[in-house]
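User: I've been trying to design a sequence by hand for this structure and keep getting stuck. Would you show me what you'd pick, starting by listing the structure so we're on the same page?

Assistant: Good idea, let's start from the same input. This is the structure you sent:
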């Protein structure tokens, strides 16, 4: 009976747009527990994840009577059609591919909800707990054990069919489904992802110092540490470098789900218009994307850093206005640094005037950095 239910579930999952489905037992992830403890000892955690390692590695703590875990994957695109090109006076930023289209949390949860309803119709006594990304379990560990793909050196799940461009979700259940066999790791001797990581956040195969990862840094809300500013480039949310260089992703375009196909003007937005968006305008324009979850502040800060990266002189008047009037010290200070980085005829006078009136010590420090950069 359970074998037929499992077979029927696989077919149903495909019918609702699940690209891969796998099953694993609900026993503890002991090896993962050891790795997570080591991550904590090294202070490599981002702070966004669940802090209780036992909850992250013991499914029975999350669902009494847990017997198995269902893992699902949805593929997302690696390329966009008609991608706009930035140019002098109209520079553009870039959202990482995982933020193209609608928020993947919504899309994956919808599939999990449909699977929950399907199972409840057939097994009224079923117990279930689903999660996507922000849940307690580690999505990649579940997917790896369920045979969705292998865990690459870039800390992504890599599938044969879609490369590492997949969103993951899982469901703990008290139904003892037969476990699938994990896929053999095929990274071999390749270490491209480790060699090209912009900040050296991939410290070893499968080991990430989250605090140095550009994807994490673009989501922070404070001043970005100096040593990382040049590494951000024009990224305003996330980073794809360790995926784009992966040989296993070659040719994996994945134009499968219309909901994940990007609006080019949102995925590669003009930078200057971002600087003055109100909260309401930001939510109206970007709110459906997963990259909006931290609000507009990190995006606007990153846009300033990107304009400095391009040395976009046309942006200096906007940056001076931010330095003068913005209520947020991070924005004032980052704008001051960017003005110094860009330079131009307006820069020095504006920075000197700002230094006279600024009361926030951190912002003053950024103004001094800007003035120093003018002379570099």
């Amino acid at each position: 009976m359970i074998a037929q239910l499992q077979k029927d579930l696989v077919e149903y999952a495909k019918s609702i747009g699940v690209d891969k489905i796998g099953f694993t037992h609900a026993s503890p992830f002991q090896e993962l527990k050891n790795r997570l403890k080591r991550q904590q000892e090294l202070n490599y955690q981002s702070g966004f994840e669940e802090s209780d390692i036992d909850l992250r590695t013991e499914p029975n703590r999350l669902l009494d009577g847990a017997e198995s875990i269902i893992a699902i994957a949805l593929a997302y695109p690696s390329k966009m059609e008609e991608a706009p090109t930035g140019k002098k006076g109209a520079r553009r930023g870039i959202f990482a591919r995982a933020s193209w289209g609608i928020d993947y949390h919504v899309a994956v949860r919808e599939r999990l909800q449909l699977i929950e309803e399907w199972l409840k119709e057939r097994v009224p006594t079923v117990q279930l707990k689903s999660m996507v990304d922000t849940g307690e379990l580690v999505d990649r560990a579940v997917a790896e054990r369920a045979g969705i793909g292998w865990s690459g050196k870039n800390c992504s799940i890599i599938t044969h069919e879609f490369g590492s461009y997949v969103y993951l979700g899982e469901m703990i259940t008290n139904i003892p489904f037969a476990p699938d066999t994990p896929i053999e790791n095929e990274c071999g001797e390749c270490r491209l992802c480790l060699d090209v990581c912009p900040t050296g956040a991939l410290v070893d195969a499968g080991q990430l110092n989250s605090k140095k990862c550009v994807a994490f840094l673009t989501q922070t809300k404070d001043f970005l540490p100096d040593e990382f500013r040049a590494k951000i480039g024009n990224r305003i949310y996330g980073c794809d470098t360790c995926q784009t260089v992966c040989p296993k992703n070659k040719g994996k375009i994945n134009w499968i789900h219309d909901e994940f196909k990007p609006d080019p003007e949102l995925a590669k937005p003009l930078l200057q218009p971002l600087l003055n968006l109100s909260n309401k305008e930001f939510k109206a324009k970007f709110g459906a994307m997963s990259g909006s979850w931290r609000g507009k502040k990190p995006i606007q800060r990153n846009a300033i850093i990107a304009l400095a990266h391009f040395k976009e002189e046309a942006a200096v008047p906007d940056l001076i206005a931010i330095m003068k009037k913005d209520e947020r010290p991070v924005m004032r200070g980052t704008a001051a640094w960017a003005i110094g980085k860009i330079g131009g005829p307006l820069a020095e006078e504006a920075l000197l005037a700002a230094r006279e009136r600024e009361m926030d010590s951190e912002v003053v420090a950024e103004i001094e950095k800007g003035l120093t950069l003018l002379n570099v």
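That's my pick for every position. To get oriented when you compare it with your attempt: The two ends are 74 Å apart (CA to CA). The chain is about 40% helix and 10% strand.
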